[in-house]
């Protein structure tokens, strides 16, 4: 019988320096992960990466922080190779990388679209590819998408539209990697109370989002709190291994599908 616990597992987290990714890293370390590689995109996130690294080590796990722009296949391949060289073959791979843009379709430039597609879709595809190639048998893969995949709304065409392919990548990968016992899932949080959310929204939009979920009145901020997302991801990469090929929206009733 395969061991689906987090204890003594090796983990790689793309976007693991801060916000949701950083909290996942801390949580898995507290759950007994043996070693965790956290990726961060640029020098502006290095201080956050160092802080998360220290928290992981304080919880008793080995840790390494790796910087990379993951918008090329070669960079994702190198991230996995560097992880394996530093802490061993991963058992759990989590991708939290994303880029948001709120803008009318008529105003989106080709450059903006290409940037969104590279971060949200291309990075996710090649992360899944390399995870499938490099994870130990009975591994777990999870990608963070968005609850806007269940929305009927304007202005997020480039954001939600470039996250949408990850649903199919997840289904395909779950079939292709399933023979090795690897489960593949995606989670779509609602608007989260992090610095990732606020720059894209005006005051009126923020006020709307804080009341849009069915359970908004019971949230600290009215938004999705990252503390409420982490337990679901923890479950999916451990005892929830039987869930595969699925996209799960975690949003307090903000959207549904």
How would you portray this structure in words?
41% of the residues lie in helices and 15% in strands. The two termini are 34 Å apart. The protein is α/β, with parallel strands linked by helices and 257 residues long. It is globular, with a radius of gyration of 17 Å. The chain has eight helices and seven strands; from the N terminus they run βαβαβαβαβααβααβ. α1 packs parallel to α2 (46-58), α3 (73-87) packs parallel to α4 (110-134) and α4 packs parallel to α5 (157-163). The chain has a single domain (10-194, 229-249), classed as NAD(P)-binding Rossmann-like Domain (Rossmann fold, 3-Layer(aba) Sandwich). It has helices spanning 19-30, 46-58, 73-87, 110-134, 157-163, 165-177, 203-212, 226-236; strands spanning 10-14, 35-40, 62-67, 92-95, 140-144, 183-189, 246-250. The model has no long low-confidence stretch (mean pLDDT 96).
């Amino acid at each position: 019988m395969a061991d689906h616990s987090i204890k003594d597992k090796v983990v790689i987290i793309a976007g693991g320096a801060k916000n949701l990714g950083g909290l996942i890293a801390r949580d898995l370390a507290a759950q007994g992960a043996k070693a965790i590689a956290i990726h961060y995109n640029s020098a502006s996130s290095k201080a956050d990466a160092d802080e998360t690294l220290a928290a992981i080590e304080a919880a008793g796990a080995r840790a390494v922080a790796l910087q990379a722009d993951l918008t090329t296949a070669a960079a994702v391949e190198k991230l996995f190779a560097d992880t394996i060289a530093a802490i061993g073959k991963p058992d759990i791979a989590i991708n939290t990388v994303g880029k948001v843009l709120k803008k009318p379709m008529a105003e989106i430039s080709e450059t903006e679209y290409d940037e969104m597609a590279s971060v949200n879709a291309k990075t996710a595809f090649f992360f899944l590819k390399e995870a499938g190639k490099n994870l130990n048998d009975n591994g777990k893969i999870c990608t963070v998408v968005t609850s806007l995949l269940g929305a009927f709304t304007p202005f997020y065409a480039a954001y939600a539209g470039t996250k949408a392919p990850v649903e199919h990548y997840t289904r395909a990968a779950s079939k292709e990697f399933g023979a090795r016992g690897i489960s593949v899932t995606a989670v779509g949080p609602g608007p989260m109370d992090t610095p990732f959310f606020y720059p894209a929204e005006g005051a009126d939009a923020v006020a709307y989002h804080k009341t849009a979920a069915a359970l908004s009145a019971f949230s600290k901020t009215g938004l999705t709190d990252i503390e409420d997302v982490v337990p679901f991801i923890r479950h999916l990469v451990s005892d929830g291994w039987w869930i595969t090929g699925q996209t799960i929206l975690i949003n307090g009733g903000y959207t549904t599908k």
